[in-house]
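Holo model, adenosine-5'-diphosphate. Inputs:
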Amino acid sequence: MIFEPQFESMPRPRMRELQEQRLHDIVRYVYERVPFYREQFDAAGIRPDSVCSLDDLPRLPITRKTDLRDHYPFGLFAVPTSDVSRIHASSGTTGKPTVVGYTRKDLDLFARVVARCLAMAGAEPGMILHNSYGYGLFTGGLGLHAGGELLGMAVVPVSGGMTERQITLLTDFRPEVIASTPSYALTLAQEFHQRGILPEEISLRFAVLGAEPWTDSMRRQVDTSLGVQATNIYGLSEVIGPGVSNECVEARNGSHVNEDHFLPEVVDPATGETLPEGKEGVLVFTTLTKQALPLIRYWTGDIASLHSEPCRCGRTLARMSLIKGRTDDMLIVRGVNVYPSQVESVLGRMPELTPHYRIIVSREATLDSVEVQVEVTDDFFRIVGSEVLSDDIVETHQLLRQLRDRIAYLIKDSMGVSMQVTLVAPGTVPRSEGGKLQRVVDRRALR
Ligand code: ADP
Ligand code: ZN
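Output:
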């Protein structure tokens, strides 16, 4: 089902007209209401009324997270706090949280775009939504909640953590849809497995997963272990929260961007130059309709590409690829740029491995060294079991040596850097407790 077909399936030329009209209006709006933007535009010699086309976008200044921090907490709001209905803050994955605000109308918009996303993911009115996103300052919990209700679902506001209780609720309420981080979906799958509950006995049919990068191999794991079709939901609090884009369950090939509200661009991370469709770079969004915190060309730091070919689901909204990582996650190891998701892609190709891994970066003298710790599966562990001492696997067994060498070779081959690979026993790598999982341990900063 398409929640708002008049927008989601709008012919693309018509969508462009709508975006251009809205861009013109929002530029005027921020110029009149936000001193920061007025100064920026004046300094760049941009008259707000001269912005009438998407081709004008590259002329507009970029807004960055630091601009929000510099105006902490409410300095970039375009309305007085008396007109604000809710305040959220980003989860602070990369530092001090940034504060965002919503008017009543912004909250309606938030619910509408999330309802669209849930429908893209396969959800329908009448279904039950088990919402494991954290409730609180983080936009995930309340965002999914309102969207689910608007779509006509019964929402169970479980929030993150307390896995034991989540399993009980999932078993007793029999929801069709779950929303969580991908890493937490795996934690839940593992709990079901340990209780001997088979995927086909789990009532879930659709999983709406996001808030952290994941890969297609992880998707396959979630699909088979929970018996669902998992789709990607993407968003960030500065732009609105979850609901910026979602994959359709029909194609599961890129997330449809709600681009009548969030105008996407991809720019070169080094030069800031706008890149053509299909090219990978940093996602930049302009909010076209938000009132409390409108942002012009907001630099997300997330790496992806955009595609606008027709989709079999009938939506015309452009699609963005899975996020490869964020520029802040990018590790520069001996001069080579490495994203954790590239390591994950290699690991995902080995049937002997679980999706549980972490990357430990340290520095010896002046050289960076990277260790990838990854858990082997229970089955593989049983085969090599006799060779195992304590938690870490002692790599005397030939099968282990071969597996380790194969992973190391593929990593070097695909990324151009050598990493030390350590195979560890099932259950030894830290799991998601409900929130975003930190897979990289960077010990270089500690020195
Ligand atoms: P924080 O920057 O503190 O994590 P948010 O809670 O607003 O703030 O999280 C937004 C960020 O989370 C995005 O910029 C992106 O890096 C990441 N993210 C959200 N959804 C996804 C997704 N589906 N895939 C990859 N990364 C995602
Ligand atoms: Zn589609």
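The radius of gyration is 23 Å. The longest strand covers residues 353-364.
Archived with the compound record.
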